[in-house]
Task: structure prediction
Amino acid sequence: MQQLTGSCFIGIDVGGTKVRAIGLNSCGVAIGDLTEPTQKDILSQVSRIVNELGRGVVAGIGIGVPGAVNPTTGVVTKVPNVPSLEGVALRDVLSVRFGVPVVVENDVITAALAEQRMGQHEAEMIAVIAAGTGIGLGIVYRGELLRGAHGAAGEIAELPMEGGGVLEDRVSIAGLMASYRAAGGQQQLSPLELLQQAQVGVPAAKIATDRYTYWLAHGIRTVIATIDPGRVVLTGGLGSAPAVHTALHNHLDHLADLVTVSVLGADSPAHGATLLAQHTGEFQ
Result:
C-alpha cells in the first residue's frame, strides 16, 4: 500500500459472497485494495474497510450493492444475497458516519459505468450483465446511467420462467451447482472448479455448464430484444470465465457478435465504485 499524500477515494463492491474494495489517491492512482468474504454485519465491515484503506483522509466513497437503490431516498431494496442491507439508507448512514459525500448504486450499474468510461466500447448503449452469485443488468446510454423510476432498472434476475421460478434460479451459482448434481455430479467442487472440469469434458460438469449458459443466453436474448444495445458486456465471477463464454456461443448464434467479456474482469463493479467516489457531485 502506497503512502498517502492527500485525500483519497474509496470504491467498494459489496457482493453476495465477497467484498472487493479499491482505494485511489487524489490523482486517481491506486493506493491499496482488498478482497474478503462478505460478513453478516455489512455496515461494520464497510466502515472498517473505509478506515483501513483511507486512513482518515477520505474525500468520497462509492459503493455498489447487489440490489435496487431508490434514487430519491437512497434506500436499498431487493438484496436477497445481502439481506442485512434490506431497507437500509446506506448512502445517508455512511455519509453521516464519515462526513463525506457517498454514492450508492446497484453493483451492475457501477460495472456499466466502468465499462463505459474505461472499457473502450464503441457503442452508444452498453448493457453489462454480471453473472456470479446471481445475475443483474446495468445499462449506460450516451454516458447516462439508466436507473429506472425506483432504481430497479435491469433487475433481470426476476424475469419469470416457464414452469415457475425466475431467471436467477437457473443463472446463479446455486443454479449451476443444482444442475451439476442433477446430472449426477458427486464431487465437492467450487463453481470455477466445475467450469474447469467442463472444459476438459467431464460429463456432469459439461451438462451443468451447458444448462447454465443456455439460460444465460436466454437472458441475453431478452435484453437484446428489449433495449437493442450496441454491445453486451459480460462480467462477474462466472460471466468472466472462459468456459462460460465459450459455451455461450453455442446458444447465441449470430447474436454472439454483440457479446464480449469485460477487459476489467470481475473487478468492473469495484472500478465503477471508485468512479462514483471520484465524481460524487455528478451522481448524487
User: Anything to note?
Assistant: Confidence is low (pLDDT under 50) at residues 1-5. Residues 203-227 form the longest helix (25 residues).
